[in-house]
Specification:
The chain is mainly α and 112 residues long. It has a domain of 75 residues. The protein has 3 helices and no strands.
C-alpha cells in the first residue's frame, strides 16, 4: 500500500503539534503548582497580619482607656467570603441611582 508524502507530512505535523502541546501543558502545570503554593503562603501571611493588626487595635484601645480614661471602639478586620458569581451577576444591568449613591458614584453627565 502506498501512502503519499503529503499524508505522511500531515502525520508529522500532528506529531510536532502534539509534542509542543504536551510541553506547554507541562509548563502550565508547573506554573499552576507554583501559584498554588504562593497563594497558600499569601493567605497564611494575610491571616497572621489580620490577627496581629486586630491585637494592636485592641491594645491601643486599652492603653487609651488606661491613660486618658476614654473608651473608644475597637476596629476589627474580618474576612468575609465573597461569591464571585454574585459579584458579576449584575454586571450588565443598571444598578440604579440609589445603589450608585451608596457606592459613591455621583450622577453621570447627560449629553443632549
Amino acid at each position: 500500500m502506498f501512502i503519499s508524502n503529503r499524508i505522511f507530512d500531515l502525520f508529522e505535523i500532528n506529531k510536532e503539534s502534539l509534542s509542543t502541546l504536551r510541553e506547554e501543558l507541562l509548563t502550565l502545570r508547573i506554573e499552576r503548582d507554583l501559584l498554588k503554593s504562593e497563594l497558600a503562603s499569601t493567605k497564611a501571611n494575610f491571616n497572621w497580619l489580620t490577627v496581629r493588626c486586630n491585637a494592636l487595635e485592641a491594645e491601643r484601645a486599652q492603653l487609651m482607656e488606661k491613660a486618658y480614661n476614654i473608651r473608644i471602639p475597637v476596629p476589627e478586620i474580618v474576612r468575609t467570603p465573597i461569591d464571585p458569581f454574585e459579584m458579576n451577576a449584575d454586571l450588565f444591568n443598571d444598578m440604579g441611582d440609589e445603589r450608585a449613591a451608596t457606592l459613591g458614584l455621583g450622577p453621570m453627565l447627560k449629553s443632549n
